[in-house]
Structures are given as C-alpha cells and as structure tokens.
Specification:
Heterodimer. The chain starts with a helix and ends with a helix. The protein has 21 helices and 16 strands. Helix 2 packs parallel to helix 3, helix 2 packs across helix 17 and helix 7 packs across helix 15. The strands form three sheets. An eight-stranded mixed beta sheet has the order 3-2-1-4-5-6-9-10, sandwiched between helices. Strands 13-12-14-15-11-16 form a six-stranded mixed beta sheet. It has a two-stranded parallel sheet with strand order 7-8. It has about 600 residues and is an alpha/beta fold. Helices cover about 35% and strands about 15% of the residues. The chain has three domains: about 200 residues, NAD(P)-binding Rossmann-like Domain (Rossmann fold, 3-Layer(aba) Sandwich); about 210 residues, Ubiquitin activating enzymes (Uba3). Chain: B, domain 2 (Arc Repressor Mutant, subunit A); about 100 residues, Ubiquitin-like 2 activating enzyme e1b. Chain:  B, domain 3 (Structural Genomics Hypothetical 15.5 Kd Protein In mrcA-pckA Intergenic Region, Chain A, Roll), CATH 3.10.290.20. The structure holds adenosine-5'-triphosphate and zinc ion. The site of zinc ion has 8 residues, from loops.
Length: about 600
C-alpha cells in the first residue's frame, strides 16, 4: 500500500479537535484537510478583525466581523468538499458544551491558542479525558510544538511559566530607571483618571518603599500639610497613600483619590500636569533616602515647559505632534497632554453613568496620552524619551506575528499528529523553530519529549501540592479566589475547603452565599500560617492542595511555588535544573520548558537574540 493510501486508511475514522482559528489555526486547518484528515471540529470564540487579514489567509475583507470558526470551516471545506468539518463559535471555557465527555469524542486535540489560561484549561480537560494534545505557539520568528500524552510526556503545566513581566510598585511610583517604568506608570495614570482603577494602579508616591526610611517624616509632612504646597490647599493635591501606609502611620486620614481630585478640578489639564509632574515630584524629593545613591528627579511645571523652547536643538526631536516616529520635544508632550486630557474628558463625560474608558493601544487619544505622560515622566527622571511608535509597541506588548513562523508551526503540528495517531509514541519529538540558524545551521530543532514531572499539581498521580505565600492579615478569600485561583491557576469553578476542619470556604455553587466569609481575610476566618486548602474544580476535573504561608511582605500580592515540594525560598528547583540542561542541549537556543505565551516567548526571543 502506498503512503497516500496508508494515510487515508489511518485518517478515515479519526476525529480531531482544533481549538483556535487564528494565525496558526488557519494554517493548521488547511494542512489537515490537505493531508487527508476527514473529521474535524473547530472552536473559536472570536470574530474576524481587519488586522487578521494579512496572515489568517482563510479570511477575506468581506468576512470581517464574521465568526472565525465558521468562515475558516467553510473555506477549508471548499478545498476538500468531502471533509466533515463542524464548528462552534464559542469559548472553550464554556463548560456546558465543552466538558470532559465532549473531549472524549476526539482521537486528538490540537491547540492553536494565544493565551495561557485557555491553554491550561484544554491541557486539564485533555488529561482528564485521556486524549492526546498537541500544543503549539509562535512569537515573531520563534515557535514551538509539543505533544502532551498523559503519563508519558510533560503536560503544559509541568513547568511553571514565567509570570507576566511586572515591576515592583515602588520602582514604578518612586524610582523609575527605564523608560518602560514610565510607560507602565503612564498606563496606570490613564486608569486613575479615566478608566477602571485596579488596586495596583496607584500612581502617587509610595511611602511604603522599603528604601524610604524617611517615610514617617514624609507622612507627617503630608498629613500636616507642611512644606507641601498643594496639600495646604486642601484637596488640590490629590496625593493619597495606599491603605497600608495610612494604617501604619496610624492616621486614618481620608485622602482623596487622584480620580476624585481630577473630577473636582474639572479635569483641568494644566492643574493635573502640575500635580503629576511638579507637586508629586516635589513630594518624592522629601523622601530623601531614595536619592542618596540616585539622581533625584527634576520637577517641571506646565508654565516652564511651555515657555521654554525645550529640546529644539536636537535632530532626534520634533515639535510635530503628528509625527509618531520621532520623539516629541517636551513642549510637544505638554501640548499632546492637554489635547488628550481634554479629548478623554469629553469622551468620559459622554458615557452613561458608571461607565469608564478602557485603555487600548489602538485608541488614539489614549495612546497619545500615555506617550506624552511617559515621556514627561522620563524627562523628570533623566531617562531618554521615545517616539509614540516605540512606546506603543512597549505599552501594547506587541510581538509581531510572522505568517511564515505560523506556517512552519502548523506543518510540524501535522507531522506530530500523524505520529500520535499511528501510535508511534517512540517517534514523537518536541520541535523548536529558532530565530536564526544555530551554530550547526539548524533552524528547526527537536528534542525528546520530557517525562511528566512527578510533583506537577495538574498531572501528577500522587502529590499535587502548591505553596502560596500571602499576607494572611490582608488577603481576603475573595482576593485569593480571583487573583490566585482564577488569575494564576486558571481554575474556573473552585470549591475550596480547609483540610483540617473540613470547612468549605469557597463554593462554586451559585446558590451558596459565601459573601460574608469571602470578604474577610484569612486571619479573620481563623485560617493560619501552614493551613492546607483543598481546591477542587469539577469542570476541569482538577484537585490539588494549596499550602498557605504567611508573608508580611506581601500586601494584596502573592508568591506561588509549585515545583519540587520544597518550601518557598528553597532553590534551585528541579525545574530550574532541567531547564539549565535543556539550555545547554540547545546550544543557547530557547528552552523547551517555557510556554508559548507572550511573556515567555519574549524571554525566549531575548535568549535567542543574545
Ligand atoms: N477561550 C478561547 N476559546 C476559543 N478560542 C479562543 C479562546 N481564546 C483564544 N481563542 C482564539 O485563539 C486564536 C488565537 O489566534 P492568534 O494567536 O492568531 O490571535 P488573533 O487574536 O487572531 O490575532 P492577534 O492577537 O495577533 O490580533 C484566536 O482566534 C482566538 O479567538
Ligand atoms: Zn504536568
């Protein structure tokens, strides 16, 4: 029998699921039908955007705003009319439709997703249903394909993925040293003034900065209104401490939020300018310890920036506020600041009561505001400025999607898929697409799949444990549920009980009212250091223990260690050791263990580029 016939026979009755019909998904669906796959189901929640058309080649201009899953299915059906292709325009998180029994209907699942939580979710369902999964991803010129088979290879979560890049709050609020710190602050500033305010978005000086030994003195100054002109004028300053700082200084003064202050000032752009770039900076200067070994910031006012012709001599700078490729002069930044604050103020006031603006890199006013604010702050801290174009790419975390990388990834997915369906697990490889050929001239590299990690909290057959450091006096059960269980562990419908007492503290049943309990801290619920919580998500068929450790240094934040069973702080972990091994093996190329999501890809790109 020829190879074509053998393939036809093999694929005749195989049913496969493709999750995601974007960049990789379109390539993959085309490859599958051209290879001879006969029964394909595709799930995608999204509709087609104009920006998808340059690489998601199954879509045409007339398809914009239509379902990706539907249009992609119809397009590949045309390529091979005898293919049985079905679709769902829905999120894979929809547990009513896509539960374990749904996954069991397939011989193989292939992910073509773009986010970690959906990948985690499919990983868990495939493990539970006992269906092999092929995971893939790309970021710019690099890509990866790996096969996940329960009990035989590492699952997607055997290695923890690097957390999204975050910066210490005090660096952002007090001592920025890179332009990205100013860009992050600037996005927070947008939220403070016009958008949804997250607890981590505070832009005012941070008195809790561990370096700031003069905090008390500074707090006194602020509370008394001494030496801090704006404070003397009542609420014109709007400088507010975070809750903990206020508590620690034992002065529960209610200090108005930046938003409230801006609203009361009628969003007067020039006043906001002087508060952000002069008054708050003057205030930072009173925290003297911060500037012992750093260059202190230089406050600016709207009047002196606009009166002085700043930066006019530099060829790199422009007064043309429409030039997004060149760095604006300070004067131009001040002008954009006023224009964008005015525009955003008008848009915000036109919204129905209670609605807010949300930051989007493609929203011109929002982007111009962030670029101007970031450069003004950068100037204050003696950090070189950037063009709007550069800031947009940093602020939007943009890694360009490269159609060719997606095509190679999708090709390798099919190669591995056939091995899995032939039952040739001995042939399975993890494949990496490098940014450039390695010293041996290879652009594509492959490696043996790694065996499952014994302590993986998702796929281990015996010990599923994670260690979480939280401040038990600050973190409420609700914060734990939202930030740790959902935000970090991608758990969808958790039931949580305390191992020692058997008390249920979080319930997935919508009829249960746990609101009183959930709004209390762990400490208020008598949950102490070392407590073991049993977490159970019936939708994902996932159970693990979370051991809580009290850490005074965490506020509403947390640290997770889920690796070797070592207590928090003990290192190196087994994962780190095996990652080092992989790095050696791949001769400086990206490591196998890292995920496919934006952050880890960016990290891998850096490694590859170095
Ligand atoms: N929970 C989910 N359920 C179903 N599909 C999902 C889910 N999350 C993401 N997807 C889909 O996965 C696909 C990923 O494709 P891709 O990485 O090319 O992203 P994109 O949104 O099409 O493009 P870009 O992000 O570059 O604008 C998208 O079509 C997206 O809708
Ligand atoms: Zn695992």
């Amino acid at each position: 029998m020829g190879i074509r016939n053998r393939l036809e026979t093999l694929l005749e009755d195989k049913r496969v699921l493709v999750v995601g019909a974007g960049g990789i998904g379109c390539e993959l669906l085309k490859n599958l039908v051209l290879t001879g796959f006969k029964k394909i189901h595709v799930v995608d929640l999204d509709t087609i955007d104009v920006s998808n058309l340059n690489r998601q080649f199954l879509f045409r201009r007339e398809h914009v705003n239509k379902s990706k899953a539907e249009v992609a299915s119809a397009a590949v059906q045309k390529l091979q009319p005898n293919v049985n292709i079905t679709f769902d325009h829905d999120s894979i998180f929809n547990g009513d439709k896509f539960g374990i029994s749904f996954f069991k209907e397939f011989n193989l699942v292939m992910n073509a997703l773009d986010n970690r939580s959906a990948r985690n979710h499919v990983n868990r369902l495939c493990l539970s249903a006992g269906v092999p999964l092929i995971e893939s991803g790309s970021a710019g010129y690099i890509g990866q394909v790996s096969v996940i088979i329960k009990g035989q290879t590492q699952c997607y979560e055997c290695t923890s993925k690097p957390a999204p890049k975050t910066y210490p709050g005090c660096t952002i609020r007090n001592t920025p040293s890179e332009h990205i710190h100013c860009t992050v602050w600037s996005k927070h500033c947008f939220n403070q003034l016009f958008g949804e305010v997250a607890i981590d978005d505070d832009v005012s000086p941070d008195l809790n900065d561990p370096e700031n030994k003069t905090a008390e003195e500074a707090t006194e100054t602020m509370m008394n209104g001494n030496g801090h002109t704006a404070m003397e004028e009542g609420n014109t300053n709007g400088f507010h401490t975070n809750g903990v700082a206020a508590e620690e200084s034992n002065k529960n003064t209610v200090v108005p939020s930046t938003r409230k202050w801006a609203e009361e000032s009628g969003y007067n752009a020039k006043l906001i300018f002087d508060k952000l770039f002069h008054d708050d900076i003057e205030y930072l200067l009173t925290m003297k310890d911060l500037w012992k070994s750093r260059k202190p910031p230089t406050p600016i006012t709207f009047a002196n920036v606009t009166d002085e012709a700043q930066g006019g001599g530099s060829t790199e700078m422009t007064d043309d506020v429409n030039d997004i490729m060149k760095q604006w002069t300070l004067k131009a930044c001040a002008r954009v600041f006023v224009e964008s604050v005015d525009a955003l103020k008008t848009r915000k006031s036109g919204l129905p009561e209670g609605q807010l603006l949300s930051w989007d890199k493609d929203d011109d006013d929002a982007m111009r505001f962030v670029a101007a604010v970031a450069n003004l702050r950068a100037h204050i801290f003696s950090i070189p400025g950037k063009s709007l174009f550069e800031i947009k790419s940093m602020a939007g975390n943009i890694i360009p999607a490269i159609a060719t990388t997606n095509a190679i990834v999708a090709g390798m997915v099919v190669v591995e898929a056939i091995k899995v369906l032939r039952g040739r697990k001995d042939l399975i490889r993890t494949v990496y697409i490098n940014r450039q050929p390695n010293p041996r001239g290879q652009l594509l590299m492959d490696d043996d799949p790694y065996p499952p990690r014994k302590e993986c909290f998702v796929c281990s057959s015996d010990k599923r444990e994670v260690f979480v450091k939280v401040n038990l006096n600050v973190m409420t059960l609700k914060m734990f549920k939202d930030k740790v269980l959902t935000g970090h562990f991608s758990v969808q419908s958790p039931d949580v009980l305390v191992a020692t007492t058997g008390n249920i503290i979080i319930s997935s049943d919508p009829d249960d009212d746990f609101s009183e309990l959930e709004n209390r801290t762990f400490q208020e619920n008598n949950i102490a250091d070392g407590a073991v919580l049993e977490v159970d998500d019936y939708l994902q068929d996932l159970k693990f223990s979370a051991v809580l450790f009290h850490d005074e240094n965490q506020k509403d934040s947390f640290v997770v260690e889920q690796d070797t069973g070592a207590k928090p702080g003990e290192s190196p972990t087994e994962e780190e050791a095996s990652e080092a091994k992989r790095k050696r093996k791949s001769e400086g190329e990206p490591s196998a263990s890292e995920g496919h999501d934006e952050e880890s890809q960016a990290k891998r790109m850096r490694i590859a580029a170095e």
